[in-house]
Amino acid sequence: MRAAVAALFLSACAAGAPEAVRQGVTFVPDARGLGVAGHSQRIDFGRSPEGVIAALDRERGAGRVLAASGCPAGVQRQVAWDDLVLTFTEERFVGWRRGDAAAGQVCV
Hints:
The structure is a single chain. By secondary structure, the chain is an alpha+beta fold. It has one domain (about 25-105). It has 2 helices and 8 strands, in the order αβββαβββββ. The strands form 2 sheets. A 5-stranded antiparallel sheet has the order 4-5-6-7-8, with helices on one face. Strands 1-2-3 form a 3-stranded antiparallel sheet, with no helix packed on it. The radius of gyration is 20 Å and the shape is globular. The N and C termini lie far apart (about 70 Å). This is Lipoprotein.
């Protein structure tokens, strides 16, 4: 009987418990693209835009598409996740900027 009461009590508590917030990986911008903090994995310049955007969307939430004004020739897309902005040609990840820091081809 006690077990049934305890199970009922716990199930009622679980229904109102908030869903756990996912802790995504930390991307570390550098001269070659993006490192992944604590891992040897990387997202280097030259990768497909679809794969790069999907990985960041999965870990940081949906990116925000920015206008491609002020971009070097060939850069067709900018996508921002908070203060991290990545730039892409039609086929490749080519740059990033965060605050005053940047690498690769970036829009100004």
